[in-house]
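Project channel, design review

CF: Before we commit to the Phyllostomus discolor constructs, I'd like one complete example in the thread so the newer folks can see what an input/output pair looks like. Taking Protein CEBPZOS isoform X2.
RD: sounds good, go ahead.
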Amino acid sequence: MMARTLEPLARKIFKGVLAVELFGVFGAYVLFRKMDTSQDFRQTMSKKFPSILEVYYKSIEYSGMYGIRQQDEEKWLNNKS
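CF: and here is what came back for Protein CEBPZOS isoform X2:
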């Protein structure tokens, strides 16, 4: 009898965890997409969340795309002077 009463609770917890996971994956995708399409946003990320930007750079370098980090650094250095 006890197992039957816990079943609805377990389903609710599972659904909640699944929803949080899906929200997290969607949020990570949106963040990655924004960083991938906007150099200005990457500059903002470099100031506020450099570790997240580092993960972005490493992931695109791991996929075989090189040069984005260097392009960003060159543009940001030129903008300062």
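RD: helpful, thanks. Residues 6-79 form one domain.
CF: The helical segments are 2-37, 39-48, 50-62, 68-80.
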